[in-house]
Every structure is written in C-alpha cells, then in structure tokens.
Amino acid sequence: MKGIQLRAEHLVDPIGLQSRTPVLSWFCQGGFRQTAYRILARSGGETCWDSGIVESSVMLCTYGKELKARERVEWTLTLRDEQGIWGGEASAFFEAALTDGRWKARWIDPELPREQEENQERQPASVLKKQFSAPTFTSARLYITCHGLYKAKLNGQPVGDFVLAPGTDDYRKRLQYQTYDVTTLLHPGENEFLVTLGDGWYRGNIGVDGLNHYYGDDLALLCQLECDGTEVLCSDETWQASQAGPVRFNDLEKGEEYDACKETVTDWHGVTVKDYGYEQLCASDSVSVKEQERFEGKLITTPKGETVIDFGQNLAGYVEMEFTASAGDTITLWHGETLDENGNFTQSNFDPGDRNKNGGIPQRIDYICKDGLNVYKPSFTIFGFRYAKIETELNLKGARFTAIAVYSEMPRTGWFECGNEAVNRLALNSLWSMRSNFVDIPTDCPTRERAGWTGDAGVFAETACYLADSYPIYRKWLAECRLAQKEDGLVTNIAPVNDSGSFISNMLQGSAGWGDACVLVPWALYEVYGDKRILEENYDMMTGWLGFVENRAGKTRVQNLLNPYKKYLVDEGFHFGEWMEPDVSSMDTMKKNMMFGAPEVATAYFYRSARLVSRIARLLGRQEDAEKYAALAEGARKAYRHTCTKKGSIDSKRQAEYVRPMVFGLLEENEKQVAADALAGLVKENDYHLNTGFLSTPFLCRALSDTGHVETAYRLLLQDSCPGWLYPVSKGATTIWECWDGIREDGTVHDSLNHYSYGAICGWLFGDVCGIRLREGWAEITPRPHPSLEYAKAVWASPLGTIESSWRYEKDTLIFDFRIPSNITALLHLPDGTDHLLQPGGHQFRVEGVF
To answer: By Cβ atoms counted within 10 A, which residue in 8, 86, 462, 569 is the most buried?
Structure first.
C-alpha cells in the first residue's frame, strides 16, 4: 500500500485544536480493499489509545479519548487488505490548544487614551514590542489573537503565514486564536517579539454600507508564548507600544497608507491592561488564509493616458511593488476588476454610491517611498482586481508589480477538461471566483460587499466540494451561522452579520433558499466527506430554522385560505425569490414578493429542507424527529402541488418553475417527464438561452440531462450570447460574474465581476458530463456524453481517493475510461443502458453508436 494520507478534523497535522475528540480520517492509493483498521495513539511517549482491530472499510473514526490542554498525540494507522494482510503503516499527529483556565496573558490596549468624540476617528496601525528571555527548551508554542488584525515577528522573522489573522468572527460571541510552532524562531537567551495591529473587521469598514467600529473602538492584543508548556512571554503591562510606525491608515475595503520613511519605529509608550476576559475565545479548527499564486503585471497606457497594470487574472489579494526611489516620492495604486467601454480604468461596477457612508470602496494604496530599493505589499487589506491604476512621478523603468492571490488554504481537488476551450475557461473561472471569495469564510464578492451570504454558499456547496478541499472553511462559516441564528430560529441572510440592525435590514431576513443553506451545506459536506459530525454540530440550527418556517407557514394570505394544506404553505415573510432572473427586474421581484409572497419558492424549500432533515434525523438515530419532519415535508409537498401546480401540471413561462419541482422531488415520475419536455420546449423557444435565476440555474442542465434532454442541456452550456455561461468567456472573463451581462455588448460594465454562484454549473460538468458523484461513502458514475464537446475528462481527488472519468468519440464509437481509488467500488451506468460494478483500478469500455 502506498500514498496513505491522514487527517485530524480534516486538517493535516493540526496544532491548536479546539475539538477534544477529533475525527480522524484517511485515504490511500494502491488498488486494495480495506477490510479492517487499527489505530495506535501515543502521548508523552506512552500509548494513550488503542482502537483495537476494527472490522470496517470505513476510512473515518473518532479519537477514543478526550484531549487535554496542549496535549500532542502521535497516531499510527495500519490497514488490513482483502487477503487478510496487514501493512502500509502511516503516522501523523495532532495537538490540542489551551483551555480557558490556562491563559496567563492579559489583554493589552496599545493606544493612548482619547476623548470620547475621538474614538470614531481612524488611527494608524499600532506596533507593540517586548524583549524577553527564554530558557533551553525542546518545543515552543505561541497562542495569539487580537481585536483587529495582527502580524507578528519573533526575532525579526514572521510568525506563521496567516494573512488577515485572526480571521473574521462575530467577535461579540466568538474570537478565534491561533497556535504557532515557533520552536525554530525562538532561541535560549534574549529574544524580541514584535506585533503590528490593524483595524480589520473589528473596527474597520465592513459590508456594502461601510459600517465601521462595528465591534468596538479599541485595538487589543492577547498572546502567550510557552516553552515546553511553561509561559515565558505573556502580554501584560510591561509591553511598549507606538503609533509612529509606517502603516498610517489601514482598512480592509478602503486600503492602506504606508510611509516607508517610518519603518524605524519611534515614540514608544506604555500599554493599558484591559479586562476583556477569555469567555469568547475559541481555538481555530480551520485553515489559514495565505498568499497563493503570483501574477506578474504588464504596464499598459489607456486612451485617457492612464498608466495601468494588467495582471491577466481577476482575483482577491494585493500587489507587491518593487522599485527604486528617493525618500518622499509617492506612488498611489487604485484597484479595479475591468476596463470601461473605452478601455480606461474604472471602479464603477462595484461603486456602492450613496449607500456607503464612510468613503466608499476605493481599493487604494498610498505609498511614501524611502531612499533606494523599496519593496512593499499591504498588511491589513485585500482587494478584488485584475487591473491597478498607478499615479506617480516616478520613472517605472525596472519596476516590478506582482499580484498575489490571497485565499484560504484549500488544495485544488477537481480538474476538468474537454474539447471546447471556452468550457475549459468557464471551469477555470469558477475555480478562480471560488478562490477569490473563500477568504476565511465563503463570501459573495471581494469588492463591494465581502459578506458571508447564505444563499451563495448554499447553491455552490456541491460544486465547491469538487473544486477544492473546502470542508474546514464551510465548517467555520456554519459556526458563524449558528451564532447569528435568532431565538425564533430565523437564519440570517449573512453570517457573520454585518448590517446596521435597522428596521429594513431586519425585515429582509429569513429568505427561503438563503436560510435553507443551514441544511443544504451540511448535507452537501456529509455526502462527500461522510463525517456525521457536521450534521450533529448543525442539527439544532436546522431544526430551529424549520420551526421558524413552520410558524411562518401558520399564517396564510387571503388568496390561499382555501388550500386544504394551507398550514404548510409558506406565503408569508420576505423572500428574494428566484432572484437575478436575466429578463426580470430584481427590484420588481422583491416588491412583488413583499406584496403577494413567494409560495412557489418558499414552500418548495420548506419541503426540501424538511425532507433532508428527516433523513438527517434518521442518520443520527433520532427516529421521532425523523417521522416529524417527514410529515412536515409531505404536508409541504401537498401544499405546493395544490397552489403551484394543476394536479402536477405546470403552466409557466419561467424555466425555474419547472426546474425546482423536478429536482426537489415535488412531482410524480410521469409528471416530471412532462415537465421536463415542457422545460426543454421553453429553452428552445428562448433560442437556447436560460431565464432561470440565482436558485435554479445550478440545477437547470441536470434537470434536462436526467430526463433525456441531453442535447438541450449541452446547447444551453455552449450558448455564447447573453444570457449564457459562455457569454462572459467571450468577453474575456477570468472569473464568474454576478450578472450575466456584467460587461454589456457595448462594453459598459456593472455589478461585481467576481461572484462564484453561477459557477455552480461546474457541479454538472463533474457530476453529469463526466458523471462522478459521491453519496454517503459510495461512488456512482453516470456520464452524459455529447459529440459537441468531442471529449471530456474529470479528475477528482475526493475524500475517498482520486476518481477519474473520461469519454471521447472515435467516429461512431464512444470510449470510456475510469479509474477507481483503493477501498471503494463505483456503480457505473453507461448510456447504452448497461450497469457495471467497478473495482479499484483502471477500466475501459467501448460503446457503439452515437449517444
């Protein structure tokens, strides 16, 4: 056996775990079948847990003891194959974080006291320092967090590579701290620790409204460095601080002002100890946000004479500059996603206008140079951009400008290619929009809002699991959703919440399809990763949400009072509805929904979530709950059919009103086929353009290809005029747009050009074109080939191992190639109607005739 990969809490060799009973998982390559496993765990040189021989092919279990604070456990996995042979050992480790009672450090505020009216004024970044002595030691750990953002250096070397640490949270309820192994940075004797604090989400601008000081007016640091479990450095009253460092202004949305002449920090003063407590502290069981790919910029001159850098890829991150200058020279960078219709630099597509009360979103860097070589990149901001406009008197000959992508550490797991380069670019665009928006949590866009919208996360979760290892990011975000949930069960549209709490913002909460993400996302993760803990952690949130929807259904509008199932009909409350249908005004849709409700959307989602929660309850051994939610689902199904269909028949010109009941299971099989035929007819009438919106577009092609309309699905995919997936590609897009016509035919631009939601079509490329799907620990492959692509190949490094599926046409013969990883089998359904059980290894099939 070879290539065994081990993880704890779905992380590789994690330190600082919050969980005291982590989930251990593994997969391996090598063409064998696991029939049993054994895990031996050691702590402090002694065996602390022995799983014994477990007769199972499952590649996941829960650590059998409770971790102690700081405890490091090394574990060894041994597997037995189908011949009864043991072998192929692999080892890894995990380590617990502190507990509340272990904190000796104190919260310290680095800023001098200000008058109350000055608290809202923006301040320079604060620099804190402390010299300390360390004994001879074996290992050293740093535990650190802050109000704001931190960058730490130990003896002049960066501590870790987490960008925008400690990450985003609802800091009033939860604040994560990080654990770093600083063994190689620390040395016996004298050491110096330096920390710079920026505003971040804590008191910088957040959301489209640009709200600031959302969580507080202060900056504060909490850190504790230990050698072999003994504290050698704690934040306390003996530290020094200064506001005379080089970062003169910083804001996540607005940008950063940096004076390189102030890199030698002066004007040190004392700090103030604060009693902020430790109750909201939580160790991070997620991954770090890191610098990733780098893109060298190309200088261009626009028709207006602007000097602009084109990095060739829209992304979230920042620019590293390297050039020679004289002290006092200045350079300003403005960041934008596109050029306007005349080829000039613009930010108009994400300008929030009057809605933002705190200076908008300029995405600006102001840099004051020092003598000689200047090398700079921001510390406390990131931008969404492909282009950067330069304003400077400097001679830029020899200057280097490099765009650095910044996103959560999530290794790519999915690769798709086919005979159509535009489709290949579409798949890559989806990946890049995911990368641009998975910065600690999944957000909608990296420019205007940067908000953890539930609806976006919900429609994309299945696709995300194909493209990258996103489990830890989703898991963290779901914890934010739980914190944001209201007492009555309402799940907010955004988590962490970043609105003003006004009457209007409160009225717009709890939309169907958005709140249902609390069910849809955990279920998508469970189906792929097979870890029930994600269901257990979020079960109360799910049932709370369904309780809220059930109570909402108890109120019925006059026009639906005669529905015999009205108590299950959701026609009250605010709903975005289908949202962003290409030929419909979204504002008009909102007004209509507020006036008349949105029972078609809301009741369908009530059914879908109740049905899933019934299955989840059964998986978790909650039989009474399973029956309760099955009954709710059935009631919602009858209510939907009575109000939204005519005995199962649909009469609508909107494609979404066919897709939703077909995919959710609200129709009988014969009704589903009739609906599919009608849907295909609508698509053809629309010249093979879609008119679905935000919620149904991810399922449109699947609804067609699963019901015999494969060619119609492919013609939709390959549509290169607006609205269609390939229209943005034809306009040079390198990411997915918020709107189908983000760049219109006349070149005018509007709205975000980096929203991943419509990139959910990639779920169809992996799960239907190449046919790979995981369902609760087993694989099914049902490819839907079509000659228009010539060939297609998907490679998915799934949690169970790497699965490959490809097909190609050779005249009238279809040739299929599959590769199945160790320890699983896959049920294959070929287009000729034959079924095959695939064992680990490679397989090829030839099918005569054109399908």
So the answer is: 569
Which helix (H) or strand (E) segment holds residue 681: the answer is helix 669-685
**pLDDT of residue 118 exceeding 70:** no
Rounded to whole angstroms, the maximal C-alpha distance in the chain is 82
- Please name which of 90, 5, 41 lies closest in space to residue 822, comparing C-alpha atoms: 5
| Local structure of residue 513 (DSSP, 8 states) | T
Residue 231 host element (H or E):
strand 230-234
Q: Does residue 827 carry a pLDDT above 70?
A: yes
Please give the Cα distance from 672 to 662 (Å, whole number).
6
Q: How many helices (H) and strands (E) does the chain have?
A: 16, 43
Tens-digit pLDDT profile for residues 53-71: 999 999 999 999 999 999 9
CB 285 within 8 A of CB 19: yes
Phi, psi (degrees; rounded to nearest 5) at 340 = -80, -175
Distance CA 753, CA 746 (A): 16
Question: In this predicted structure, what is the pLDDT of residue 823?
Answer: 86
Indicate whether 31 pLDDT > 70.
no
Residue whose tokens read 């989400």: 201
Residue type, position 503, single letter? F
| pLDDT over threshold 50, residue 1 | no
- Please report, as a single letter, which amino acid is at residue 619: L
Phi–psi pair at 460, nearest 5 degrees: -105, -10
Distance CA 242, CA 249 (A): 14
Indicate the burial class of 537 (C-beta count within 10 angstroms; 0-12, 13-18, 19 or more): middle
pTM reported for the whole predicted model: 0.97
Q: What does DSSP say about strands 307-325 and 383-392: parallel, antiparallel, or unpaired?
A: antiparallel
Establish whether 253 is a catalytic residue.
no
Catalytic residue (choose from 71, 257, 671, 738): 738
Instruction: Tell me how far apart the alpha carbons of residues 376 and 149 are, in angstroms, rounded to a whole number.
Output: 18
CA distance 564 to 723: 39
Choose the catalytic residue: 449, 572, 671, 804: 449
pLDDT tens readout for residues 754-772:
999 999 999 999 999 999 9
Round the average pLDDT of the chain to a whole number and report it: 95
DSSP 67: P
C-alpha 254 chain-centroid distance:
23
550 is catalytic: no
Query: Is the bond leading into 496 cis (omega within 30 degrees of zero)?
Result: yes
Burial class, 487, CB count within 10 angstroms (exposed 0-12 / middle 13-18 / buried 19+): exposed
